Amino acid sequence: MMLPLADLLLSPDDMAAVDRAAAASGIDSYGLMEKAGQAVAASALRHFPGALRYVVLCGPGNNGGDGYVAARALRQSGAEVLLFHLGDLKTLKGDAARAFADCFVAGEALERYLPRAGDMIIDAIFGAGLSRPVPDQLAAIIARVTEAGTPVIAVDLPSGLDGRSGQVLGAAFRAERTITFMTRKPGHLLMPGRDLCGALEVFDIGIPARIVRTHANRMLAENTPAQWLANLPTAASDTHKYKRGHLVVFSGGATATGAARMSAMAGLKAGAGLVTIASPEQALSVNAGMLTAIMLHAIEDEAALREWLSDKRLSTFVLGPGFGAGELARQFALALSDRHLVLDADGITSFRDAPQRLFDAFADGPTRLVLTPHEGEFARLFPDIAADGALSKVEKARAAAARAHAAIIYKGADSVIAAPDGRALINANAPPWLATAGSGDVLAGIIGGLMAQGVPAFEAAAAGVWLHGVAGQRAGKGLTAEDLVAHVTPF
After folding, report:
1. Alpha-carbon distance 142 to 150, whole Å?
2. Half-sphere exposure (CA, 13 Å, Cβ side) for 103?
3. Could you give the angle at the alpha carbon of 442 between the alpha carbons of 439 and 445, nearest 5°?
4. Burial readout 313-352 (b: 16 or more C-beta within 10 A, e: otherwise)
5. Could you give phi then psi for residue 43, rounded to 5 degrees?
6. Mean pLDDT, to the nearest integer, of 445-467?
7. Which residue, among 355, 463, 332, has the nearest Cα to 405 in the 3D structure?
8. CB of 100 within 8 A of CB of 65?
């Protein structure tokens, strides 16, 4: 499926290559800047019609050029416009210099701006063209604007935000709206960038789609059904429970059974044909009193598990929720190295001192392992990757997936799903109220349920994260994990 341009993600470097290719093809680059600046001005008038002053802050590059065009368009509309610039205007080059020359609004040095009630700001200082901390004079202006609560529209990206990683470079504006052009950047989706961008609008300024697609990173996109829907099973008239797979979820002892039950029910609702909870003998009666559609099986130790694994219909397992960290979890995980395994929570923590044992066990053949670490668990399995401040969250997830030969879900408000082959997806549909106890257990069960039906590990992980977000939206604010399970549905 060919994605719409607005669904693609281009890094700042990729977008710069698009601009160069557009210019090399004969497209008038100043004409593109004119369209961009006019779009920004139109957005300011549409969304902030009551502003008393439109304050345009311009930087030394093409982002500033967009700002000069916007300032001219706003003045031509009859609005009161103030213009402030960063740096020496004599150093402006190319289209930015032309935009400044065409702008008949007199400007002042950036540091002279003092917010006033009724102002709205157009931030056209750096956009995506920043890879180092903002200069001190800009940091002071950002602090001043933030304290005053003055609304901001950002051009491309809020100045101070890294378009590659979504991280703040010293200080950054918090925009109410961000206007970007042709397509989005990873920093628009990764946190805290997503929050700092506010409402995001992607405006087509006329660069041919063929040029944008040529430079788009086909290994990175937003996590949407377009990325994995073709891999999900479809119900045929001869479908029966054994064709839909058998999922096994491991339970902890008698006082730690709830997490496994939530995973198991989520797996069943995600479409697994059969679901069994495997638990110590002491926990059987507890689970039996709480379940009807889920089967039970007693497993006390590794020997019992290996004997049970002679049944090859047991294809997919979830280990970790409520299980307890330690040697037994390690033994169970390693015993499952030839099956499909979702390793979550305590299962991940159990390998903090010997992660390579886990990675080696699943190193051969197709990807069979899905790891679901939150930030702390990620650092336990991949301490060197987690500590590398030069890497974005996407790059960290990719490095971890390649090392572990696993599909990685680097969880958070901006969960990143990565495959060993370098594919990565950024999830953006999860509501904030999903951050509640037991939510991760439900996610593990959804993924297990999809894998049991034959969905490949990466696609199951990505679909599971998306479906988890949809369930959270349906359940609404104040949800509990039990509520979440009730709203899990297969696509």
Report:
1. 10
2. 33
3. 155
4. ebbbbbbbbbbbbeebbbbbbebbbebbbbbbbbbbbbbe
5. -65, -40
6. 98
7. 355
8. yes
Burial (CB count <10 Å: 0-12, 13-18, 19+), residue 122: buried
Q: Dmax of the chain from CA atoms?
A: 82
pLDDT at 351: 98
| Cβ–Cβ < 8 Å for 386, 394 | no
**Gap between the Cα atoms of 129 and 290, Å rounded:** 56
| Average pLDDT over every residue of 432-440 | 94
Question: Does residue 242 carry a pLDDT above 70?
Answer: no
The continuous run of DSSP H or E covering 159 comes out as none
User: 225-486 has which CATH code?
Assistant: 3.40.1190.20
With a cut of 80, say whether residue 445 has pLDDT above it. yes
366's enclosing H/E stretch is none
Q: Is the pLDDT of residue 376 over 50?
A: yes
State the pLDDT at residue 1: 58
Number of other residues whose CB lies within 10 A of the CB of residue 273: 18
pLDDT above 50 for 434: yes
pLDDT at 234: 78
C-alpha closest to that of 66 among 2, 150, 159, 166: 159
Reply yes or no on whether the pLDDT at 238 is more than 70: no
Which numeric CATH code is attached to 5-217? Answer: 3.40.50.10260
Listed residue (209, 182, 158) closest to 36, CA to CA:
182
Mean pLDDT of 47-58: 98
Measure the CA–CA gap between 466 and 225, rounded to whole angstroms. Answer: 8
DSSP states along 401-414: HHHHTEEEEE-STT
pLDDT at residue number 240: 47
- Angstrom CA distances, 79 to 64, 114, 169, 423, stand at 19, 19, 33, 47
Share of the chain above pLDDT 70, in %: 98
User: Residue 361 half-sphere exposure, CB side, CA atoms within 13 Å?
Assistant: 19
Predicted pLDDT at 129 = 78
Q: Which residues pair with 297 in a beta bridge?
A: 278
Rounded to 10 degrees, the C-alpha dihedral 230/232/236/238 comes to 140
CB 30 within 8 A of CB 69: no
| Alpha-carbon span 410 to 397, nearest angstrom | 6
What is the spatial distance between Cα 383 and Cα 399, in angstroms, rounded to a whole number? Answer: 12
Burial of 210 (0-12, 13-18, 19+ CB in 10 A): exposed
Domain borders along the chain are 5-217, 225-486
Mean pLDDT of 296-305: 96
Q: Are 284 and 293 in contact (CB under 8 A)?
A: no
Helix residue ranges, H only, 250-392:
258-269, 281-288, 302-308, 327-335, 346-349, 355-361, 375-381, 383-387
CA distance from start to end of the chain? 17
